[in-house]
Amino acid sequence: MSINSTKIPAEYYEESSLYSTKLVENLYKDSFKSHSSESSLSLSKKFIFLSQQSSDSEWRTDLNLDNVITYKNITIEISPEKTLTLPAKLYKLAESIQNSKYILDLEDDFDDEGSPRYDFETWKRAVDFLVNSAKWALDKNNVVIDSPKIYHGPDGSIDILWKNSDYKLLINFPKGNDTPATFYGDDYNTNKIEGTFNPSKQDFRLLHLMLITI
Amino acid sequence: MYPKEVIPDKCSLYYRVHATYFRDNVLIPGVFRELGDGMSTDWDKYSTPEQSKARAKKPENNGIVSLSVEKLRILNFNVIHAPTYGNRAHTNVKGVNVETRLKLLDVFKWEIKIPQD
Fold this sequence. Notes:
heterodimer, A: alpha+beta, five-stranded antiparallel sheet
């Protein structure tokens, strides 16, 4: 993972110094290992104070700018040959994706019940849908979608889960390209949404619609 | 072979959960899955949580949760007593899908926590 060290507007910012330290230590480990030339981070520096309440273009006045690392885009290494690039606003989504890479390390019979390993393509299909949908919501509606958890599902499938006090939503991407994804969500009350869709059709409005419906 | 019985709503079923389905300090929805004839559980009339755990291939990697039969039926699961030669408690739960997996996360109860490293 790498960071372009470009100063970004104040509206990107949110108070999250602890998160940011974790981001540096965990999310960018890969780029340090690979000695990426774009890795402009210094682990010794404190990092990020962001406030979406900020409406002007000024930096927060209580910051010591020497101790702040800024960034514009986040690049995640998803395989030795492939990367994903996300806008800085989607840094929580980047962390979710990074954390989900454990799925690719699970081996056959990882649960002692005969469950199969997970194909890179299945995981990538789920991640692509998520990233492209999140970018669409940001570009078209200036909305940062809630960041989900990405987990291993049944029979080689991938689950994407949103679960908080307001709503829950689960999308399952089955193994194989021809099988549609299924989803269910509700607000713990009467509002619910469910159905199937074909991720290969790349309708990036769909996730946004799901999240605003429930 | 043991006879098949109708399981009353007031009963519970024990379900083994492998450590790999415990992440971020919570159970993940993928833990609920059908293998063969359904989600394999043990009826509490004929099993204890400890006995259910001991039936695992590697008990040390598993915890046990219980599921209320009444709540399972409310969620439209089909609860079928399916005793085997060595396990009179064995019960299949059918109806696992994306909706019910998500809802099960809100109804299970821990009986034996998953051992932590």
